[in-house]
């Protein structure tokens, strides 16, 4: 399909401006890899596997490493380490995947995660684009609100997930009235 524009026609000029703007946006999207909304909460860039061609898999944080760093921070402050719970892991994984699809950090759906967890108290921290599990936890410790969640004395169980740079942590306190869901093998 060919487009014809008449010289001096206002409608044609507006059409050309729209096409130019569209092409400029396409060019920007094609050249700006990793562009995302900066929330100010996560200053460190995400390190991808391609940035470490010689055995860089260790540079990409894992959920296990994230929980180890969380527990290290808690033990250093004379708090009990958290037990990993797979029902909470599933909720955290779903939320990390949701944030990845949306392209930004959020606490959307927290009330639903709280209901599904059956916890008496549930806390949540999210992060994006930290290069290591230690950096994620340090970022949370540097933020008063996130530190309060991470170091809450009543939480005993955790669910953690990392999905292409998006991290989700759920900490839960279970009681006899709100028992932990059964662990699945």
From TrEMBL:
Residues 67-165 form the SCP domain. InterPro entries: CAP_dom, CAP_sf. CDD domains: CAP_bacterial. Transmembrane segments: none annotated. It comes from the Bacteria. Signal peptide: none annotated. This is Cysteine-rich secretory protein family protein.
